[in-house]
Amino acid sequence: MNITIIGTGYVGLVTGACFAELGNAVTCLDINPEIIKNLKKSKVSFYEPDLEDLVKRNLDNQNLKFTTSYNIGCKNDIFFICVDTPDDGKGSPNLTSLNSSIKKLKQTIKRDAILVLKSTLPIGTNRLISNSMQKHFLPQKINIDVCSNPEFLKEGSAIKDFFYPDRIILGTPNNSSRAILADLYKSLKSRSNKLIHMSVESAELTKYASNAFLGTKISFINEIALIAEKTNANIHEVKEGMGSDQRIGSEFLNAGLGFGGSCFPKDMKALISFEKKNKIDNSIIENALLRNQNQVHLLLEKIYNYFGSSLRKKTIVVWGLSFKTNTDDTRDAVAIKLVKLLSHNVKALHVFDPKVKEESIISLKKYKNIRFLNSKYENFNSSNALIICTEWDDFFNPNIKQLHKLKDKVIFDGRNILDSKMMEKNNISYFGMGS
Ligand code: UGA
After folding, report:
1. Over pLDDT 90: what percentage of the chain?
2. 214 neighbors 252 (Cβ within 8 angstroms)
3. What's the predicted TM-score (pTM) here?
4. Catalytic residues
5. Quick one: pLDDT at residue 189?
6. What is the DSSP track for 147-180?
7. Contact 172, 178 (CB under 8 A)
8. Closest Cα to atom 22, ligand 1: which residue?
9. Contact between residue 11 and residue 151 where contact means Cβ atoms under 8 Å apart
């Protein structure tokens, strides 16, 4: 099929490259000329495992094209809108990118088409866009079916998530768009057997509900972790016990610093805002979000209690800045929040992340006592303690000899990835979350 993807961020680029890999002719359109110039040379501006190879392969076989021009991009039959919808600062998504892409599509589309909204959008947006398209194109007798196909790609495993989805949600307004999209996804359906058809509003809400549920699940286990700490129970054992009940499952049941990234916090805020506007009791989602916002303070409290007033003289190493493993994304990352808060109370912070580059975090530049390390054990000799903020594989089995170089031999593990017994056996003080 001939597809245009509008927006080449995490969602758009992965979706475009994966559809191209399935044999479709895909044009990816972005208004940023720098991004498109780089993509034409298969250079991806963010880290996502295997994505650059996929882009290169499909550029070479000409299944994938990149453009900044709506005139070129609008020759296709199916349009996927994958533009960003960041938090507007008041808890609702900012729809500026969406509105401007819709405006440009109205000016350029010249024949019947299917418009698929992949961006996470307030419930009811699909219907509004559909109505405005109808009004605009009626005199030209052009029909645009507006469908909702929310994405469930996790950064760091997005390509795998695309090819082996747990489910594909298709919110369609009529049988013809339903059949065309089912056909587009048919090769994936046979891999996952989970193509679920529904109304556009149900599809929009399914996306929000899924993210809010997973965020709530994490906040739930983080609350249980507090009880575990008070009672000498071990959160790892509790997770295993709970997670082996198939109705609960062990995924997203890791206690720790909590969730960050560009999705869970933003989507939960958007749902809360919707609930408030519609006078719906929002106690579950709001408290799950509040619990999450408090996680960073719980770890800081452990650090303050351990060092007391001597903290001001300490140099501390921080491992991990990205909001989770396998990505260089630091949007709403708990690690960034932690280093900003902690930097005021210590002599120096030495930070290391396998993928995040110093120049990408402009907001840290003004913190003069934060220094980026080139390798994870650099400067251990002159540091006092270690804090782990992201669960990178590389941090799971640290070298004990290196850890012994830390002057105070203490670790604060915000992701619960180290074995507390092993640390204690090696005379290293260990503080996890819930154990
Ligand atoms: C999330 C969803 O998982 C995707 O399905 C969805 O498509 C995406 O949002 C989106 O809306 O675009 P993502 O934000 O990439 O994906 O990250 P997740 O893997 O879901 O992790 C979110 C946060 O939860 C991370 O900060 C992670 O460290 C934290 N987390 C995860 C925990 O604290 N504990 C866990 O057990 C699992």
Report:
1. 94
2. yes
3. 0.95
4. 263
5. 67
6. EE----PPTTSHHHHHHS-S-EEEE-SSHHHHHH
7. yes
8. 259
9. yes
